[in-house]
Each structure stands twice: as structure tokens, then as C-alpha cells.
Amino acid sequence: MRPLSQWLPSVMHARVLRYLDEVVRRGSIRRAAEHLHVAPTAINRQILELEAELGAPLFDRINRRLHLTPLGEMVLAHVRQTLREHEALQARVAEIKGARRGMVTVATTSGLAGSLLPSLVHDFRQHHPGIVVRVADLPVAGIVAAVEQGDADLGLGYDLPEVAAFRVMASRDWSIGAVVAPGHPLATQPSTRLAECAGYPLILPAPSLSIRALVDDAFARQSVEVTSAVESTSVVLIQRLAAAGAGVALLNPLDVMDERARGAVVFVPLRDSDLRQQALRMVARARAPLSPAAELMAERIGTALDGLFR
């Protein structure tokens, strides 16, 4: 006799699973057949074939009634677990394909909430109007905590720490560049260097933002002393000051995608080899399956990042 674990996968698609479950629930093959609208002989034949395959009876037939044997009890428990998992899978597939309702929460930074997500969320809602989208604007530590504690389905941020409880759903590296007004002297250059940017008033992200550490590290490696004209945790403020000609901002192209599209600012790549890139990651809890709504959102964000990266 083959082990049950080897036998079940070969018949997981078979109707015998449903037949066996209904026979036990209804107490007889005749009642199960009436409920399933099939011939009693069809159910009886499937059960006999199953018993022959296992090499032992599933039922004791006592006084014309069916009673599960110990093997039958074991098989029934496994069958019902299989049926539950199958039904759950069907429900998830239906939700993903239909996406009629649901809710997804994305924890992200203020910069991404203002640059990448507006058009992305709008497009997502156009395709899935029944899904409620919640966006939480948080610092990096807040993003990590929200995902770890289950308050957010997805976390999206730069240089998120590697946490064992996370699985990375998507990851893209972005180069930092100089952001200036169209009339700025740097605007016509194909690329520039940090030392050259330091000759103008600098509009820098505040030290609490991950990008600032990368910029400070590169300046220190080059022994360039920097005095910022403005520092802010608001990427929107930094964008607008750069667009107004107040100085040179240091951001990545994703931070200013809309402003560049409108011609409000110019992004000038930096060619400093010691300036590290920003790692943008989308994460979820490693041991918790995503809801259908969250799976759809994760797919949409991943597709958007792939499109922007090309």
C-alpha cells in the first residue's frame, strides 16, 4: 500500500474527494447521491476504487449503515483539509480576477506619496473601483513598524532595513542627481559633480531622511565642506524651492518625475563614483499571505517601477 501522502496528490482533482465528504455528511451513499445529483452507483464505484487503491476499507458496513474505519477517519480529515484549501484558493482567484471589493494599506514616505503614488493609485482605482486604498505617510522606522505589526499590507520606501520578517516584493536602485530650475547654469549640462553643486546654495533633505546620509557620505569622501541653505523633511518643499531657482536640490529622478514632465525642473545626473544609489524596496510580511487586494496593488507597483526603470 502506498503512503497516503503519495496517493492523494494523484487524485486531488477527482470527484471522489467530494463524494467521500458528502457520504460522511449525509450518512449514506443514497442521500449523498441525491444531494450531489449523481447516481448512487457512481459514488459507490468511486469509493470502492479508492479503497482498492489504498488497500484497506474506509467504511465498515454494519446493518446497512456506513461507519468510518480508523483509516477512513484519517483520509476524511485530509480530504476536508484539501477541500477547504481548494475553496480558499478559488475564492482568492475569484477576488483577484474580479477585484470587486477589498482594502489595501500602503505605508510609504512623504516623497513617494507625493510623486509616484498619486497617478498609480488613480490608475489602480480606475481598474478596481471596489478596492479601498489607504496610504500612510511615515518615516522609515514607521514603515517598518506598520508592516511588522500588520497595520500595513505593503511597505514602500528607500533603504528600508533588511528585516527577517520581511519579504522583498520589488527592488530598484535610483541614482541621486542635481535638481535645478530650467534657467540655472547647471541645467544645460549633461551631468555634474557634487563639488560643482557645492558652489551654489544647496537645498538638502533633512538628516532624518535616508538620502541625506548618502549625500553626506559622498561629500565627506571628497573632503568637500558643505553648508546647506535650506534643509527640510518635505520633498515637496525642496522641489518647489529648486523650481523657484533658490538653489540646487539633491534628489533622485523619481522624486521629481511630475515636475520634470511639466518642465518645472531639470534633473542633472551626478557622475561622482563614490555616491551610492538609493535602494527603493517594496516589502510585505514574510509569513503572512497578502490579501487579493494587496496582491493586486503589489503587482501594480512592481509594474510601475519596472516601467520607470527602463
Task: Give your account of this protein's structure.
The chain is an alpha/beta fold. It has three domains: 4-98, Orthogonal Bundle (Arc Repressor Mutant, subunit A); 102-174 and 279-309, D-Maltodextrin-Binding Protein, domain 2 (3-Layer(aba) Sandwich), CATH 3.40.190.10; 177-276, Periplasmic binding protein-like II (D-Maltodextrin-Binding Protein, domain 2, 3-Layer(aba) Sandwich), CATH 3.40.190. The chain has helices spanning 4-11, 16-26, 29-36, 40-54, 70-98, 110-114, 117-127, 140-148, 194-197, 210-221, 235-243, 257-262, 292-309; strands spanning 59-62, 65-68, 102-108, 131-137, 154-158, 166-174, 177-180, 202-205, 228-232, 248-251, 266-269, 278-285. Strands 4-3-5-12-6 form a five-stranded mixed β-sheet, sandwiched between helices. It has a five-stranded mixed β-sheet with strand order 9-8-10-7-11, with helices on both faces. A two-stranded antiparallel ribbon has the order 1-2. A hairpin with a 2-residue loop joins strand 1 and strand 2 (65-68). It is elongated. The protein starts with a helix and ends with a helix.
How would you summarize what this structure contains?
The chain is 47% helix and 21% strand. Residues 1-13 have low confidence and may be disordered.
Residue share in β-strands: 15-25%
CATH class of the largest domain: Alpha Beta
Supply the number of structural domains.
Answer: 3
- The whole-number mean of residue pLDDT values reads 87
- What is the β-strand count? 12
CATH topology of the largest domain: D-Maltodextrin-Binding Protein, domain 2
Radius of gyration: 30 Å
Structural class designation: alpha/beta
Name of the CATH homologous superfamily of the largest domain: Periplasmic binding protein-like II
Distance from N terminus to C terminus (CA atoms, Å) equals 56 Å
Which blocks of ≥5 consecutive residues have pLDDT under 50?
1-13
| Number of continuous helical runs | 13
CATH architecture verdict of the largest domain:
3-Layer(aba) Sandwich
